[in-house]
Amino acid sequence: MFQHPNHRQPPGPCAGSDPKPQNMGQPLYFVSGQFEGKTIRAELEELQKAQSGRKYARVDRRPLDPPPTILLRLFHTDDNRQWEQELSYEDVINVGIMCTVDLFPVPDSILDGDNANRNGAETSFGGRHDQAPTLTYFPLHPFTTPNVDGMVSMVSPFQIPRRQPMLGNLSGSEQPEDAVHRVGNHLVTESSKLTPALVGEKFIEPTLVEYQGQKVLVFVFGDLAVQREGTFIFRYRVFDIFSTAHGGQIRPMLAELYGGAFRVYSTREFPGLAPSTDLTRTLAKYGVRVTLRDAERKSKKPRGKDRRASTTSESTTSGSG
Length: 321
Description:
The protein is globular and about 55 Å long. The protein is mostly beta strands. The strands form 6 sheets. Strands 1, 2, 4, 5, 14, 15, 18 and 19 form an 8-stranded antiparallel sheet that branches. The longest helix has 17 residues, at 304-320. The chain starts with 27 loop residues before the first strand and ends with a helix. It has 3 helices and 23 strands. 33% of the residues are buried.
């Protein structure tokens, strides 16, 4: 139906301080809620990832652009997945289906083209790799997101670091216990999570829209901003908070997705905003609150080398006069 291989990620096992069900991404039999008596499998796809954003300031929300947009797909199936049928989303009650977002730092090299991820090496933690290259990871940030049962670990008060800590290096045989995802040669760890640096709606319900000629459910994060500079990825998780799955799973987690990388700039370094994408314009037609632009909006301040070149040019002109 919808294919986006660069940003589609099947869920994998999660270790560390934020446990999740072992059958994540597998069919769930529901004993209460709108799917009662049915076995449902869910999956997520990132239709549109953020490309860039300006560091959050109180006088200006400065949301990420374009707005991250996640497709939710639901399938009626059996426990052995010998057959499955995609649901009609016009019949799905979206109230109670919630998507949450977490923020993780990743090396700038992932966007600069120096990382193995540029060759498609993106996997959930636990995937097999024939070679054992030098791996990187970020050290602990003292923060833990509550799990689905509302339980949290005792941690120190969280403070948003002003600068990204130095990358740690690991051999292929050494891996942090809380590694949850791998992007190229970088291990994303649960303890590196920077979700408190996010400003805006981090829990949203899906919206029914028409996409590629079909009615679909999408989660649109239209007002997220980040309070620090750097390169990041999002983790999306979907719950059905008004349902119970077999085995007493209350508010079961249906699916998980790690999205594509994006960069947050300082105001001085921000390169500007591109015109709104076709998908963003489509979302606006369905009443989703997004920002629309007809033309590229470049930063008014010169950046880096351009700024130095401008200063040199002005000095030369002044001297010749």
